[in-house]
Amino acid sequence: MAETMLSDRLSGDTGPQTLRSRRSITRWTGPAWLWLLLLVIVVVASFMAENFLSSRNLTNVLRQMIPLGIVAVGQTLVILIAGVDLAVAATISMANTALMGIVAGQAANVPMAIGVVLAAGLLIGLVNGLIIIATRVPALIVTLGTASIITGITFLYTDQTNFGEPADIMNEIGFGSVGPIPTLFFLYAFIAAVVLIVQNRSAFGLHLFAVGGSEQVARSSGVRVARVTVFAYVICGFLAAVAGIAMSMRMGAGEPLSGVGFDWDSIAAVVLGGTALTGGRGGVGGTVGGVAIISILNNVMNLAGVSSFTQIVVKGVIVLIAVLLAVGVTRRAAVDFKDLITTRFRASQGEAT
Prior knowledge:
Blueprint: H1 2-11, H2 17-29, H3 32-48, H4 55-80, H5 88-103, H6 110-135, H7 139-158, H8 168-175, E1 177-178, E2 181-182, H9 183-201, H10 203-213, H11 215-220, H12 225-248, H13 262-272, H14 284-303, H15 308-352
Antiparallel strand pairs: 1-2
Helix pairs in contact: 1-10, 3-14, 4-9, 4-12, 4-13, 4-14, 5-6, 5-7, 5-12, 6-7, 6-12, 9-10, 10-12, 13-14, 13-15
């Protein structure tokens, strides 16, 4: 009964059909302006770099999307509950170097190495979630601390140098493709699709939005806030490890700093996709578009010879524009909802008299 009432509140079942359908579509696809922005960027990119639309380059763009996309999906779940995970970059570096070290060039070691790395990612997420719930310390501080610990451990066992060696099968998978589509892109697409369905069609997904919208209201509605929070961080840690594994498939050795930048890029992709940092609004559908935009921006600016410093500025401006657009949409939705409630209240008062 509590879940039904909560679902009604979140899905807008008390409102007009148009408002309900608009919110429902956005949950799956992300905001319309995001895809319009992506189209504009593709058009501009095709003029900035002659080779941008070549089959080879588009394949490279898809390859670049894979690790960022996987970790951004996990980051989305955490941000939906008004959290954040700054440990994903360190987890990716740990996964990359640990995998290479265990494999040591031997194909027979690959399954065991993947199992160990995935277990480590789950453990990192579990620790983050439990500390946040137990101490009520902001997630930003907790995950920044765990990121420092993971980075220190990674530096200790790699001695801050390239570490380990991939098996041939790993590079075959990493550089393999089905037509113009990289093999590992199907893994990213599968993960995004599964999490998108879970987000929109399961009690856990409903509870993510509830906790992010109002932890107090969610708790009073019967949602186990602590369990939802821990699960979100566990999934995020797990997917960060998967991203590290995917990245390793295209590398010649483990690099202790291979994950640097993925923390902020994943957050940028999520915010760019329309997910509010305050939680309770957005979703994986928009994150997929945000990942595409950031990957295309990185690719076209590299092709155009833009300096790395300028790239940071450009991405920052794009994200700022996206945040401003998202704030405008959120305020408009809040006004619509307020008008809806006011209309229904007046109607009920009229019926009472």
